[in-house]
Amino acid sequence: MKTKLPPGPRMPALLQTLGTWTRPIASLERGRARYGKRFTVRALRQPPFVVLSDPEDIREVFMSPPEVLHPGEGARILEPIVGRNSVILLDESPHLEQRKLMLPAFHGERMERLADLMMELAEREVEMWPTDEEIELHPRLQNLTLEIVLRAVFGLEQGARLDALREVLTKLLRFSENPLSLIPLPEGLMAGRGPVGEMEAVTAEADGMIFALIEERRKTGAQGAEDVLALLLAAEHEDGSPMSDAELRDELMTALVAGHETTASQLAWAFTLLVHQPRELARLVAEIDAGEEEAYLTASIQEVMRCRPVLINAEPRLVKQPVRIGGVDYPPGVVLLCNAYLVHHDPEVYPQPYAFRPERFLERAPGTYTWLPFGGGRRRCLGASFAMLEMKLVLRAVLQRYELLPVGERPETARRRSITISPAQGARVILRERSGTQLDAQVAQRRAGVPAAA
Ligand code: HEM
What is the position in ligand 1's atom list of the atom closest to the CA of 377? Predict the structure, then answer.
């Protein structure tokens, strides 16, 4: 019986921490080349992390009982923003209960009802993008995914409240991009001063607005609203009680933090990769123009998520009880990281793993333990259907309207921003207006004030 943790780099923790920040993908690949499919890394002021990338290990982690591994505890760093009721921070039965409350609001079929709204927002944003010059798509995609969360999840209509909340939440999200501001400091040390004090003030401002929104929505009722908040307002705990204001606030913030930058970065990768794949891009545009199928669109997104999973790991699973995974015994206190990037680039799992080939997902649907951009098991991303729908609609809106031209010879390298991996130069491309497509008529109609067909 093995009792030691798997071997791993022996560099000092500080260098290991810097390495994973500055060259996230290279340091992972070096780890795997040297130590194989599981290895231990040590970061500053952190417990040991064991990086796992054997699909069988991943399966055993995802299937482990809820009292053995605690993903919620492993994600504590998010608490100042998402709040302590957030589904992402809970474990065992409180997690299950919260997740059950939220599942119907994120169900795939429900999401379809948000499609028209998402499409309208996508087209409106995309129309404004400059053409025939180098632009960064990533910040524009961030604007768009923020707008989509605020309208489709928070249920805000255009107007002063949307503008005010957009402004304060943008400030708040900036703190989550700066990981130092999230490191919990000893109580009292920074209170009222420095980044933490500032973040508390902005959070309080955002909370005031969100609680006012919740109160108003409780009064007015759903009135046929399709947004996620409407469904959460109708959800009931097992004892029949509704979700509290604090729970609603925390889950709205969770959707914002979990769903905004992830989707924006994933879309940024989609454009960065596709623009350098003329054959695959042409096939995708042909399918979109034909307007009936979306198999290649789906497969292309799946392939983008395989090549560049924006969260390279699922939520870190903190070991609470001794557990054997893949024949190795892990003691409490160790953290297990299911690493999507390494599984996705394992030649035993994906032949020619570095080639961009959406066709592989036309031939075979993504596997539960081999395609991990949304994590898995009982913690799998709640917003997966929401994000897939959103990414399809945004890709379609852009590719219907513009031809994509590359900047530079090859796709951008990866840079780490807060918890996601995104294109280092902001996803630079040149857009060129297409003409004579079906879209012109739709846009002309909307500009003339005719509502989009249902
Ligand atoms: C491309 C976009 C997205 C990616 C790549 C992504 C990825 C992930 C991943 C890897 C996890 C952790 C799963 C695990 O540990 O097993 C997760 C959890 C979660 N995601 Fe997403 N996500 C995306 C979009 C969204 C959106 C749009 C929302 C909501 C509107 C959302 C809400 C959540 C929530 C609530 C959880 C926590 C689930 C739990 O702990 O039970 N995500 N996501």
Answer: 16
3-state helix, strand, coil in the chain (%, to 5): 55, 10, 35
End-to-end CA distance of the chain: 62
Rounded to whole angstroms, the Cα distance separating 266 from 420 reads: 9
Nearest CA to ligand 1 atom 25: 259
Tell me the longest C-alpha to C-alpha distance in the chain.
73
pTM of the model: 0.92
262 CB near ligand 1 (under 6 Å): yes
What atom in ligand 1 is closest to the CA of residue 314? 15
* Number of neighbours of residue 64 by Cβ within 10 angstroms: 20
For residue 186, is pLDDT > 70?
no
Q: Is the CB of 83 under 6 A from ligand 1?
A: no
β-sheet bridge partners, residue 39: 51
Closest atom of ligand 1 relative to the 149 alpha carbon: 30
Mutate to test the pocket of ligand 1, among 336, 374, 393, 422 (most ligand atoms within 8 A of CB): 374
Q: What is the pLDDT of residues 47-71, one digit of tens each?
A: 899 999 999 999 999 999 999 999 9
Ligand 1 centroid–CA 166 distance in Å is 21
Closest C-alpha to ligand 1, atom 35: 382
Give residue 175's pLDDT band: very low, low, confident or very high (50, 70, 90): confident
- Residue 380 CB–ligand 1 contact under 6 Å: yes
Distance, in Å, from the CA atom of 446 to the CA atom of 88, rounded to the nearest integer, reads: 39
Helix (H) or strand (E) holding 266: helix 245-274
Structural domains in the chain, CATH included, are: 13-447 (1.10.630.10)
For residues 243 and 235, what is the distance between their CA atoms, to the nearest angstrom? 7
Ligand 1 centroid – CA 437 distance (Å): 35
3 state SS of 135: strand
Residue 277, φ and ψ in degrees, nearest 5:
-125, 70
Mean pLDDT of the chain: 89
Closest among 316, 347, 318 to 331, alpha carbons compared: 318
Structure tokens at 35: 């130590």
